[in-house]
TrEMBL record:
It holds the Pfam family DinB_2. This is DinB-like domain-containing protein. Gene3D superfamilies: dinb family like domain. Residues 43-164 form the DinB-like domain. InterPro entries: DinB-like, DinB/YfiT-like. Transmembrane segments: none annotated. It comes from the Bacteria. It comes from Belliella aquatica.
Length: 171
């Protein structure tokens, strides 16, 4: 990735600054793919039963966190595709708690969630490889905030890193 691929302030809502700052300087394609193995290394030793535990009452289980990561990747990838193609309509936000509650993640075998994450990541990186370079600088509006295509891909990598840290520290 070249310097033109790194998003600048103003290309994303301030909330996402922590995600983007956490991964700047890394090869984004490699990071997005390496996170597949990081997720597997975290979850596989835990297994199904331990992955259905939360670290505190009212918190998501580890499987629900993984489901949330997958949902967020899909939402951000959809936004990236829309804006890369020139979509001008404002895209809605999403209620992460509602999505997790309706995911029934704890009823899904862990192996299926891990496969889902892996396949969605490969599809995301494949899409990135097919976008014309100028598409990464395009903007759209999602959840009331302007965001660039390149920022969306950085947000996804930083978001996953954020949750991996929480999983390792609290679960």
């Amino acid at each position: 990735m070249n310097e033109n691929f790194i998003p600048k302030q103003g290309e994303y809502a301030p909330y996402y600054e922590k995600y983007i700052e956490s991964i700047i300087g890394q090869d984004l394609h490699k990071l997005l793919l390496n996170q597949i193995e990081e997720i597997r290394r975290y979850f596989e030793p835990k297994g199904n039963e331990k992955s259905e535990l939360a670290y505190a009452p009212g918190k998501w289980t580890a499987k629900e966190v993984l489901s949330h990561i997958i949902d967020t990747d899909r939402m951000m990838t959809f936004r990236a595709m829309c804006f890369a193609r020139g979509e001008m309509a404002t895209l809605p936000g999403f209620d992460q708690d509602l999505y997790v509650a309706n995911s029934a993640a704890n009823k899904v075998p862990l192996v299926n969630l891990l496969e889902d994450f892996e396949m969605s990541r490969y599809a995301m990186v494949s899409m990135m490889k097919t976008l014309p370079e100028e598409a990464f600088a395009r903007f759209g509006n999602a959840n009331g905030h302007n965001v660039s295509v390149r920022a969306l891909f950085h947000i996804m990598a930083g978001h996953t890193l954020h949750h991996l840290i929480i999983l390792r520290e609290r679960y």
